[in-house]
Amino acid sequence: MIKKSIKNKIVLSFLLVLILPTTIISIMSYRISVNLLEEKVSDSFLSNLTFIGDNIEKELEQWEQISKFINVNPVIRNVLMTSYDNDLDFYYDMKRVEQQLDTYSINTNIFAYVSSLVVIGNNGRNLLYGEDATSLDIDRIKEQQWFSEVNSLNGQVMWLGIHKNIANYRTQNESVVALGRAIVGEKNNKTLGTLYLTFKESYFTGLLKNIELLDGGRLYIVDNRDHIVFDSETLLLNESFAGMDEIRAQDDKGYFLTEGTNQEQLLLAHVPITKYDWRVVETVPYASLTKGTDGIFRNTIGVFLISFILTSVIWFFVSSHIVRPIRTLTNSMKKVQEGDLTVRVDIERPDEVGVMNKHFNFMIKRIQELFQSNLEEQEKKKNAEYKALQAQINPHFLYNTLNTIRWMAIIQKSDNIRDVVEVLGRLLKNTIKHDGPFVTVEEELSNLRDYVYIQKIRYNHNFDVTYDVDPEVLSMPCVKFILQPLVENAIFHGIEPREESGGEIKVSMKCHEDQLYIRVWDNGVGMSNQEREELISRVSTPKQHGGIGVSNVMERLKLTYGEESAFYIRSEKNEFTEIEMIIPAATSNVESASKIG
Q1: Cα(301)–Cα(22) distance, rounded to whole angstroms?
Q2: Going along 412-462, which residue ranges are E strands?
Q3: Whole-angstrom Cα distance, residue 301 to residue 30?
Q4: What radius of gyration do the chain's Cα atoms show?
Q5: For the segment 286-331, what is each residue's pLDDT rounded down to a tens digit?
Q6: CB atoms near residue 411 (< 10 Å)
Q7: What is the dihedral angle through the alpha carbons of 195, 200, 204, 209, rounded to the nearest 10 degrees?
Q8: Which terminus of the chain is more exposed, N or C, with fewer CB under 10 A?
Q9: What is the full DSSP assignment across 205-217?
Q10: Residue 331: how many CB atoms within 10 A of its CB?
């Protein structure tokens, strides 16, 4: 049943993991191939258009250089600043101007494309140069909106884009590209005249005639007034370019799909000539971009079918190889579920199934070890509790007996005996009072003070005990009877062997960073390093040495707090001995702590 279920799942996973993703991947790979092709072509467009745009910008800068030459030429300035009394003087000066322009034209090849160069002087004289200059209507030029704008720019160039020649009759160049500029004085910036420079639109045809385009591709140069300055098919010159809103929405260079005039889908790429707010635009039919992708699709399908058949055969053998070890591992898990922790699986494989087998065996081994460790810990706890019960020596009986002795001492007026018996009775009563393993620090100190009182009487006040306890720890729970064995050890093994009097014991209880630090220090005979190591060895193995003193305290701390507790012994011969315990500083009450214990 398990094998059948696994095989069904493997078949289902085969369908989900292989067939479906492979189909999706095949379709996606086809689309990605098409998109990459589109992106590659589009990026190629942008690179070519950027190159063309840079060249156009340099060419436009040359036309601006001509306007700059006109503006600073001293001969032209002199003509514009002279008031002529007769036309003959003006005629001779114009000849000089033409000589200046002819000389300048020798140094540049673009002068051949000048349609007209007109300087309309404020002195009433106009400088005319170029094949269409004499055909222009000067009055109509002055009426143009841009004419006043140019004169307000203080000598800066204004590109006027492409437009029809401003003439009353036919000119040699119907459409021209123009720029305007105010001619200003050198010293006072006073306007001397207005330059109107036009050049033939065929200038761009000669410039871009060697540009190669894709099948159906078309190149445009669009001026700052959104009119077509250059059309590779020369059909839309001086027409407004459709789609400029979408182009300007992208701001920088880019491309997008658009629809042509015959409902044909086009890819449009554009690059700005930022300095002049012109654009270089290229369109290409989308169909020409995806030409050849049908072959890519057929190849993709062929590769998919071959891969599918090969993978199906391989998957059959792989699935059979996977089922057997998984079934073996499943049967072993069932045995563990029934309580058999001795089961082990022997599957030696370098793959994930083999790793899973090793982890399973390791897990079962750890469970066995933890189970055994738990049994040993419970046994230790029972032994410690048994020893503690033995140490109590039937406190009910002792308490009743001591109470009888106390009344006998009262009757016979033996006050010392009465006080000792009363303190011992209270100490035993506190032992009976709490059945759980925890008391508050305040109660533990109270029991310790009663014990110290008895020992002081016994030793004739040969020692003194001082307490340094933070008030905040008094309400904290701690394991009961952990101070008395340590103080008893200090008295019997530290203070009593001293030859001189003046024994001192210090009990300190401090809380720091959620830890309760308990220290019992005495100025007794102390221990050498060897004696200290022997004591640590004895208290660390209470089963071998017995006793309910320091070793009992240490064992109960470990059973209660585990690794969260610490126990240290420090000593120097004839100097001191200090025992330090570190336990968690619980903030809960004794009842809650007893439940935890």
Answers
A1: 10
A2: 438-440
A3: 9
A4: 54
A5: 777 666 555 666 666 776 677 667 776 676 666 666 666 777 767 7
A6: 9
A7: -160
A8: N
A9: HHHHTT----TT-
A10: 12
